[in-house]
Specification:
There is one protein chain. This protein is of the alpha+beta class. The chain folds into four domains: 1-109, no CATH class; 112-276, Son of sevenless (SoS) protein Chain: S domain 1 (Son of sevenless (SoS) protein, Chain S, domain 1); 280-356, Phosphatidylinositol 3-kinase Catalytic Subunit, Chain A, domain 1 (Ubiquitin-like (UB roll), Roll); 369-615, Ras guanine-nucleotide exchange factors catalytic domain (Son of Sevenless (SoS) protein, Chain S, domain 2, Orthogonal Bundle). It is built from 26 helices and 14 strands. The protein has a six-stranded antiparallel β-sheet. The protein has a six-stranded mixed β-sheet with strand order 10-9-11-7-8-14, sandwiched between helices. The longest helix has 29 residues, at 172-200. It is elongated and about 85 Å long.
Length: 619
C-alpha cells in the first residue's frame, strides 16, 4: 500500500509541503512517539525536520494542545491525532526526557484506521492479561463501547480477521512482530467478548467469526507456540465445543491433552449456566381504563400465574378473572390460561386488561370508601425504612443487570435496538411508576388526617432512599410530591408538621435543577459506590453531547464525541462496583416486598387532577 503524505501539522504545514511522500516533524521526539511513524518510514516515506526556531513551548503551553497530526492516504485524511502534553512535566523539567509524557489521542478517522491505530497503540504485559498505560486502556474501552455507532458487528468481525491474517515478510524480526500483532488482536477480542457478550451471544456473525478465529489460532500454534495460552483463554471464554478443538484443526499434537481437559471443564460450565435465574420484567396489568398494577414477574410467566397474582392482590377469586390483550388496531384478544404473556423479545402481546368473566368489562377497583380506608391503613402500617429497602432492592436488581453500552444504543439507535436497552428502559419506567404511585396513594386517600400521615411517610421514605444511595427512586418520590395535583392540596400541606416541611425542603434542594443540577451532582459525587444515579438526568447529559456534536466530520468518525459518550457510559460501571463491600441492599419483610412489587398506578393525569379537585375543590 502506498502512503500519500504521512504525518503533518494540521494548521502549520504550507500547501507546498502537503504533496508527495513527505511530512514535516517539528521535534525529533515525534519520531519515537508513534509506532505508526516507524511503519511509514519502512514504507519509504521521507521525514523532514523543521530547524527554524518556533515559539517557546513553556511560554504558551496551550499551543501544544492544538498540535494535530494527520495521516493521509490516496489524497484523503484517514486519521487525525492530537498531541496532549502534561503541564506538570513541562513545569518540572524542560529537558527532552519530559516529552516521554506526551501522548496522542484520536480525534477522528475512518473505522479501519482507528482500529489499526488502536492495535498499534496496545502494549501487553508479560501475562498478556492487561495493557500497560491508562491511555491504551481508555482508547480500547472507548472503541469497544461505541463501535456500534460507526460500524456493524459484521464489519468489525471482518476487520479483525483481516488484521489477524495479515501476511508479513519472513524473517526473525517480522516473525516477532507477527506474533505480537496476533496477541494484541486476541487481547482486543477477549476484551470485546467480556464487555459485550450479552449483546453478542445470539449474533450469527460473531459465532462464525469466533469459529474462524479459533481455527486460525490453532493453525498458528506450530509457528507460534506462545499462542497456547491465548487458545486456552478462547476455549474458556467462548465455550467452544470439543469438535472445534485441536483434534479437528490443529497440527500441534502436543496441545491435545490441554484442550481435552478444557473441553471437559467447559461442559461443567455449560450445565451450571443453564440453571441461572430467569430474567424478571415489569408487567402492567390494567385494572381500570386509566390505572394499572405494576408487577414484577419472571419472563416465562403464563396467563394463569399472572391471574393468580392479581387475584391475590385484589382479593378476588382467580376463577372470576380473565386476561385480555388490547391490540393496537383496537381489537381484543382473550388469552388462554397456558399462554405465555411475553414473547422472546420480552414484549407483551399488547395492553393487558383484567376483566370479569361474567361481565367482560374492565374492573374498577378501590371505589368503595371502606376499601380505600383499608388500603391506606395497610400502607401506613409499613415501616418506612423497610419500604425504602424494598424499593432500592427492586431498583438495584435491574440496575445491576444494566450494561453501560445500553446508553450508547439508547442514544444513537434506540428503536432499532430496543432488545439491547431493556434494563435501562425498565429503570426509566420504574422511576415514572414510583412517581405516579406516590400521587395515586395520596389522591386515593379520602380523609385529611390520613393524607397528612401518608405525605409524612413518603417524605421519610425519600430520605431513606437517599441514605441508601438510590437517587433514582429518591427523585421519583420527590417529583411525585411536587406534582401539581399534590402540591395544590393546600389544606393537606398546612397540616404537615414543621420539621417534616423542613426535611422536605432540604430534600427538594438536592433535586433543584438550577446551575445544571449542581446540588445533585455535588451530592452524588460524595456518595460511595455502589449507588443508583438519577438516570433521566444521565440521559439528558448524553443527549446534550449527542445533539451538540456531529458524529462524522468530512466522512471521518468524530471520535472526540464518542470519547465523551463513553465517559458518560462508564459512570454506570463505576456506580455498580462495590470494592469496599458497601452493599446498598438489605433484607426486607415479605409483606413489604409484596406491596412494593405490585404498585397500583393511575397513569391518566386528567383522572389524577379530578381526584385532587374532589378532595379539595377549587375555592
Amino acid at each position: 500500500m502506498s502512503w500519500d503524505c504521512g504525518l503533518r501539522y494540521m494548521f502549520s504545514v504550507s500547501p507546498a509541503l502537503q504533496q508527495g511522500n513527505k511530512c514535516i516533524m517539528h521535534d525529533k521526539e515525534d519520531l519515537s512517539r508513534l509506532e505508526m511513524v516507524q511503519k511509514l518510514a519502512k514504507d519509504g516515506c521521507r521525514f523532514l525536520q523543521n530547524h527554524s526556531k518556533g515559539p517557546e513551548r513553556t511560554s504558551e503551553p496551550q499551543s501544544d494542545e492544538a498540535v494535530r497530526l494527520c495521516l493521509r492516504e490516496r489524497g484523503h485524511d484517514v486519521l487525525v491525532l492530537q498531541r496532549v502534553r502534561s503541564l506538570s512535566s513541562i513545569e518540572e523539567d524542560s529537558s527532552a526526557d519530559s516529552v516521554v509524557s506526551d501522548r496522542y489521542v484520536v480525534v477522528s478517522g475512518t473505522p479501519e484506521k482507528i482500529l489499526e491505530h488502536l492495535l498499534n497503540d496496545l502494549t501487553l504485559d508479560d501475562d498478556r492479561g492487561t495493557t500497560q498505560g491508562k491511555e491504551s486502556d481508555t482508547l480500547l474501552d472507548d472503541f469497544l463501547l461505541t463501535y456500534p455507532v460507526f460500524m456493524s458487528t459484521s464489519d468489525l468481525c471482518q476487520a479483525l480477521l483481516g488484521h489477524y491474517c495479515t501476511k508479513r515478510h519472513r524473517g526473525k524480526e517480522d516473525r516477532k512482530e507477527a506474533l505480537e500483532r496476533k496477541q494484541k488482536l486476541l487481547h482486543l477480542v477477549s476484551q470485546w467478548m467480556s464487555l459485550c457478550k450479552d449483546f453478542l451471544i445470539e449474533d450469527e456473525h460473531v459465532k462464525l467469526f469466533m469459529k474462524s478465529l479459533y481455527r486460525y489460532v490453532l493453525d498458528d500454534l506450530c509457528e507460534h507456540p506462545a499462542l497456547e495460552k491465548d487458545v486456552g483463554k478462547l476455549q474458556k471464554l467462548y465455550q467452544l465445543h470439543r469438535r472445534h478443538t485441536v483434534e479437528d484443526y490443529s497440527p500441534n499434537r502436543k496441545s491435545k491433552v490441554l484442550f481435552h481437559q478444557l473441553s471437559l471443564r467447559e461442559n461443567g460450565l455449560n450445565s451450571s449456566r443453564t440453571q441461572r435465574e430467569t430474567k424478571e420484567v415489569l408487567c402492567h396489568i390494567y385494572v381500570s381504563m386509566d390505572s394499572y398494577l405494576s408487577m414484577r414477574v419472571h419472563s416465562e410467566v403464563v396467563v394463569q400465574e399472572l391471574l393468580q397474582a392479581v387475584a391475590e392482590r385484589m382479593d378476588v377469586p382467580p376463577g372470576e378473572l380473565v386476561l385480555v390483550a388490547i391490540t393496537y388496531p383496537g381489537g381484543r384478544l382473550l388469552l388462554q390460561p397456558q399462554d405465555r404473556v411475553f414473547s422472546n423479545s420480552l414484549r407483551s402481546v399488547g395492553r393487558l386488561h383484567i376483566c370479569r368473566k361474567d361481565l367482560g368489562e374492565v374492573l374498577n377497583p378501590f371505589t368503595n370508601n371502606s376499601e380505600l380506608q383499608q388500603r391506606t391503613a395497610r400502607l401506613l402500617s409499613l415501616n418506612t425504612w423497610d419500604v425504602a429497602v424494598a424499593l432500592t432492592d427492586f431498583d438495584w436488581t435491574i440496575f445491576q443487570s444494566m450494561h453501560e453500552q445500553e446508553l450508547v444504543y439508547f442514544t444513537f439507535n434506540r428503536h432499532a435496538c430496543n432488545k439491547h436497552t431493556m434494563a435501562l428502559e425498565l429503570l426509566l419506567q420504574r422511576c415514572n411508576e414510583v412517581q405516579l404511585w406516590v400521587m395515586t396513594e395520596v389522591l386515593l386517600c379520602p380523609t385529611l388526617c390520613k393524607r397528612v400521615q401518608l405525605i409524612k411517610k413518603f417524605i421519610k421514605i425519600a430520605a431513606h432512599c437517599k441514605a441508601q444511595r438510590n437517587l433514582n427512586c429518591f427523585f421519583a418520590i420527590i417529583m411525585g410530591l411536587n406534582a401539581a395535583a399534590i402540591s395544590r392540596l393546600s389544606q393537606t400541606w398546612e397540616k404537615i408538621p414543621g420539621k417534616f416541611r423542613k426535611l422536605f425542603s432540604e430534600l427538594e434542594t438536592v433535586t433543584d435543577p438550577t446551575l445544571n443540577h449542581k446540588a445533585y451532582r455535588d451530592s452524588f459525587k460524595k456518595m460511595k459506590a455502589p449507588k443508583i444515579p438519577f438516570l433521566p438526568l444521565l440521559l439528558k447529559d448524553i443527549t446534550f453531547i449527542h445533539e451538540g456534536n456531529k458524529t462524522f466530520h468530512d466522512n471521518l468518525v468524530n471520535f472526540e464525541k464518542l470519547h465523551m459518550i463513553a465517559d458518560m457510559a462508564r459512570l454506570i460501571r463505576q456506580c455498580q462496583k462495590d470494592h469496599m463491600g458497601n452493599g446498598i441492599t438489605q433484607k426486607s419483610s415479605s409483606e413489604v416486598r409484596a406491596h412494593i412489587d405490585y404498585l397500583h398506578v393511575i397513569d391518566n393525569q386528567q383522572t389524577l387532577f379530578e381526584l385532587s379537585h374532589r378532595l379539595e375543590p377549587r375555592a
